[in-house]
Amino acid sequence: MKTRSWAEPFKIKVVEPLRMTTRAERERAISAAGFNTFLLRSEDVYIDLLTDSGTSAMSDRQWAGMMLGDEAYAGSANYYHLEDAVHRFYGYKHLIPTHQGRGAEHLLSRLLIEPGDVVPGNMYFTTTRAHQELAGARFVDVIRDEAHDPADPSPFKGNIDLAKLSTLIDRVGAERIPYLCLQCCVNMAGGQPVSLANVREVHAICRSHGIPVMLDATRAVENAYFIQQREPGQAGRSIEEILREICSYTDGCTNSAKKDCLVNIGGFLCLNDDAVAEEARNMVVLFEGLHTYGGLAGRDMEAMAIGIAESVQQDHIRARIGQVEYLGELLQRAGVPIVRPIGGHGIFVDAARFLPHIPREQFPAQALTAALYVDSGVRAMERGAISCGRDPDTDENIYPPLELIRLTIPRRVYTQAHMDVTAESVIALHEHPERVVGVRFTHEPRYLRFFQARFEPLEGQGVLRDVALADAGQEG
């Protein structure tokens, strides 16, 4: 019997008009932006798949909650609503709100890291690693090897390699490891989840050595869905139950609420240790705001509290992941090389395989994001050598095993038709990859260079040749 189609578990109440630009307009826009999609103006973008961070659509209940904002400087009622939601769904003892996830990363790094420390984790995330390094630590990747192979179909490629972790502890000593950073739905690996069994085993190892486990819970709800769908013995459990169990094996978390929690701004740091939490509340006053608002308006905290409850609903998370899978399946059927299995928050295209004629030194992922924008007005982002940065000892570019572009899908924003348009553009480029031209730096910032770097094509004026020109070049 054929499986019936499903539809989004919501209806559209408010719309925001989109404008399709011309090819000439897009060529001018990307050139002015230094061939970096982060520097494009949003008004020049047709379908914006740059990030799922703060780009979700809020529900009618969230918008109604915004009108109940208690904007008292101290003791806002909305803080206590948020605290109740975090206690219920994540289970941690102490809540410290921050303006967004990197505010929580900053606090955690300053609280726990001493110069010379080593922080293990399941692949780096850009801002997390930057805060750890600025605090004087060195990040060490202890993810399983499968995570570095985009074609490996393993269901939990985000898992920590227990042997790598144990070897690192023996080599540097537990006293030099302030905490282990455990990321859910590992971003740089293509949104790959961790299994509940792996989280449990990591917790046991760290606990035996007195090492705290700090969760990057930014996409923990999506990770809980993959556990429910893929891990033996978990199918009958709710997302809420699985999320609470994940968190129970950790000592705290950082969370960018702009993802799972369905808000446009906000984050939080959670801790179970009373003394560390007290220090965090002192520190948040210096960098974010009073401990009962942490840089957020009361209305933002209210929307977050409501969004947390909505995020664990089965219909919501099934549709959210389902739209990602829909786009991924379109690309897979057309032979486009993507990270497998399909992850939680976007489709990650293997730019190195997509553009085999462009060497890594010419940044194929960066070139492909610019070319995709020129072709269709779809904005994606690079997740490869540009994001990885330079070796702090040699100052040489780091070329990670994965050279990807990320088509990141905001929650509750786009229809399946938008995914069809996106797929058609990617597939058209894949049919003529020789059209895409490599790029080089013209400006390179010191920190997190992918946000503000500028580039130029290595030949001509653009990153996307016309088909006729490319064909003529091949014939010649």
Describe the secondary-structure layout.
Blueprint: H1 23-32, E1 47-48, H2 60-66, H3 77-89, E2 94-98, H4 101-112, E3 118-121, H5 126-134, E4 138-141, H6 162-172, E5 180-183, H7 196-209, E6 213-216, H8 220-230, H9 239-248, E7 252-256, E8 267-271, H10 274-287, H11 298-311, H12 314-333, E9 346-350, H13 351-354, H14 364-376, E10 378-379, E11 381-383, H15 385-388, E12 404-408, H16 416-431, E13 439-443, E14 454-457, H17 467-475
Parallel strand pairs: 1-10, 3-4, 5-6, 6-7
Antiparallel strand pairs: 2-8, 7-8, 9-12, 11-12, 13-14
Helix pairs in contact: 1-14, 2-11, 3-11, 4-5, 4-10, 8-9, 12-16, 14-16
Would you kindly provide a written description of the structure presented here, covering whatever features stand out?
This protein has helices spanning 23-32, 60-66, 77-89, 101-112, 126-134, 162-172, 196-209, 220-230, 239-248, 274-287, 298-311, 314-333, 351-354, 364-376, 385-388, 416-431, 467-475, and strands at residues 47-48, 94-98, 118-121, 138-141, 180-183, 213-216, 252-256, 267-271, 346-350, 378-379, 381-383, 404-408, 439-443, 454-457. With 476 residues, the chain is of the alpha/beta class. It folds into two domains: 23-45 and 314-469, Alpha-Beta Complex (Aspartate Aminotransferase, domain 1); 60-311, Aspartate Aminotransferase, domain 2 (3-Layer(aba) Sandwich). A five-stranded mixed beta sheet has the order 2-8-7-6-5, sandwiched between helices. A three-stranded antiparallel beta sheet has the order 9-12-11. It has a two-stranded parallel ribbon with strand order 1-10. Helix 2 packs antiparallel against helix 11 (298-311), helix 4 (101-112) packs across helix 10 (274-287) and helix 12 (314-333) packs parallel to helix 16 (416-431). The protein is globular and about 65 Å long. The N and C termini lie far apart (53 Å). 49% of the residues are buried. Residues 469-476 have low confidence and may be disordered.
